[in-house]
Design a protein that fits this description.
Layout: H1 2-27, H2 29-41, H3 59-89, H4 95-100, H5 103-127, H6 139-156
Helix pairs in contact: 1-2, 1-3, 1-5, 1-6, 2-3, 3-5, 5-6
């Protein structure tokens, strides 16, 4: 029972974290909008970079990409919270029922993993060369989120046994 409760709690915490990040980005829109703008414009990468042809300098696209990031954070949070609720409802159920209740939680965790891995590490970090910026490099933060979510995803997907 403790292992199942731990799974519920960890999924819930990732959900609350993701919702908090999304809501914070709405409330304090300008702070991370500036981050998106600088990463996409590639204005702080190494001056000798030959990859700056990838830069995007359209404020409309900055707002669009930022809105997609915020939406993904909120969707991640909601999926995880619904997933935690479904897991909680199946806490005392047979193992097959508890395992079947993992679908929303898995979807939420994968959504968050995809956002911070693909969105920040691949697109931001490599496509827009964010790693070259001393000021606008979010890779360390993204990696912390990826690692946390990935560990919860692995733990959640360990098959649960029948309660004794």
């Amino acid at each position: 029972m403790v292992v199942r409760a731990a799974k519920v709690l960890l999924v819930l915490m990732i959900g609350l974290f993701s919702l908090l990040v999304g809501v914070d980005n709405i409330i304090d829109y300008g702070t991370n909008y500036a981050f998106v703008q600088h990463v996409m414009s590639m204005d702080t990468v190494f001056p000798s970079s030959t990859l700056t042809w990838r830069a995007i300098t359209s404020p409309v696209l900055y707002h669009l990409f930022y809105a997609l990031i915020i939406a993904a954070e909120i969707v991640t949070g909601l999926l995880c919270i619904v997933g935690a609720r479904r897991l909680w409802a199946a806490l005392d159920a047979p193992a097959a029922t508890f395992n079947a209740a993992k679908d929303f939680a898995v979807a939420g965790l994968v959504s968050g993993f995809a956002l911070w891995f693909f969105g920040f590490m691949v697109v931001g970090g490599e496509w827009f060369q964010m790693w070259q910026s001393q000021t606008w490099n979010g890779q360390q933060a993204a990696f912390r989120f990826i690692a946390s979510i990935g560990l919860v995803l692995i733990f959640l997907n360990q098959k649960d046994e029948e309660l004794g």
